[in-house]
Amino acid sequence: MKHLALLLAGCAFSATALAQTDGPIGVRSSTDYSAMGTNGTNSRNTGFGIKGGFTASHFRGDDKKNYSEEGVYNTFHAGVYAQYGFSDKFSIQPEVLYSRQGFAGNNGTTTATGAYDTRLDYVQVPVLLVYNFLDNVSLHVGPQVSLLTKVVENGQERKIANDNNAYNYAYSSLDYGLAAGLEARVGPARIGGRYVAGFNDIIKDPKTVAADAITNIKNGAFQVYVGIGIAN
User: What is the CATH class of 2-231?
Assistant: First the structure.
């Protein structure tokens, strides 16, 4: 995890340095919009596009100590975004993402040997406030709601609900949390990184004492992405 954090910091530093250059000929900066107006459809910060990238997912919470063989679940995310600029500094950016997350760790309730992977597929909707503290570098922060669509435990798909007590626990179909990160832009291209923290418990409705000991865990994920503005 320390190596991953250093990698993300390096990406953010490199993107910041790149974005402070003049960029390719013909690429407009925020100051080029002053004569046109800096809000609404005339803003450089208004448009939409596609994005996707790498996700390093893990879990947090008081019951994390009850899992053995803990590891990072490396996967991906992809989706679309829209952005509406209020000025050359501030804008709102909603997104719709398919994000494959999860965690690696044996909770002791399975007979599987070795690392026990849990895959969680979400449709995520973050709504981010974007602040351009440099001309082409911005801070993103805002709430996020996620709908769980699929669960795969150690390669076997299982139902999200308890299914009439067939399982010792169920999964929360809805997660909510906070996303925050940095993004750099060069022309229509974007590169960024963010951390997403889920606030709702991943596992709920324990049916046994053993299951009750693993329910207080929450999502956490580092995301590194690239994007292309289709209209900006």
Answer: mainly beta
